[in-house]
Amino acid sequence: YGGVLAEFAADGTLRDHTRYGVDDHVLITAIPDDDGGRTVAGYFTNRLVLGDADPLTLLDPAGTGQAFVASLGPAGEPRWGFAFGSAGDDWANYLVRLPDGGVAVAGYFGYGVDAPTLTVPGAEGSPLVGAPLHERCDPASCSADAFVLTVGPDGAPRWVAGWASPFYDAIRGLDVFPDGGVVASAFVNVPFPAQSPDGKEPVTFSDGEVVRTPEPATVTVRYDADGARAWTTWTARSLGRAATVTRDGGVVQADHV
Q: DSSP letter string over 196-221?
């Protein structure tokens, strides 16, 4: 796989097309900056090089896959960037702009690893500790835990938070409030009651709260600008796909059941 950034003019004309990481399996999501640059995030293995004249090189020491976030100038020159992750596969899938010019990035960590630890140097709340695998969970197909990370305009990590279950926790939506808080929506793939001995599985939030949910569900979480979890809602037997902030500060959460 490779990452591709394509930019189009107002009339639909292709303005720019840049490919990254053809040999290093890079997937990228991007949002524009006010000065014509862009902030990018995603996943890579082994090595990621951003820029040409004075490139920024990010490394994946274990070769299992690292998440990354970076800021590029109008000409593609790197302004800042860093990789972060665990001993397993780590993906940054969603990226939104914060009101002060920073960004929030969300995804999952520790795919294929028992009780992974996500480390983001300098971020409050780091490291995040993932969940042990369920005895019926195949590490190659169902293990990952959710994270939300905020980064300042200067590239300095602020806080990281998330949640973990013994199965697969996949963030499917991310949006920002006018006050700098964020909302994240995720599918929590715990087993149905017939598959679990007591009919419930624990979902552990990074602030220490443990919720036992009896079936697959969508969890929607609002974090304040400082990373504190403000509220959490659950929709049973659903696969969360999006979370969008409304004009009055509410949230529209879309999924299918």
A: STTS-EEEEETTS-EEEESS-EEEEE
The candidate with the shortest Cα–Cα distance to 183, out of 255, 246, 120, is 246
**Residues 124, 142: Cα–Cα separation, whole Å:** 28
Contact, 223 vs 184, CB < 8 A?
yes
Which amino acid would we find at residue 170? A
Tokens of 144: 């990952």
Cα separation, 63 vs 24, in Å, equals: 10
Query: Is-cis flag, bond preceding 99, omega within 30?
Result: no
* Those residues with Cβ within 8 angstroms of residue 216's Cβ, 6 or more apart along the chain or in another chain: 187, 188, 189, 190, 191, 192, 236, 237, 238, 239
More confident residue, 15 or 132: 15
DSSP class of residue 190? P
The string of pLDDT tens digits covering residues 49-78 is: 888 778 899 988 777 889 999 999 988 899
Q: Give this prediction's pTM.
A: 0.89
| Residue 10 or residue 20, greater confidence | 10
Reported as a single tens digit per residue, the pLDDT across 94-105 is: 999 999 999 999
Cα–Cα distance measured from residue 48 to residue 34, given in angstroms and rounded to the nearest whole number = 25
The residue that leads in pLDDT, 103 or 131, is: 103
Say how many CA atoms lie within 13 Å of 212 toward its Cβ. Answer: 7
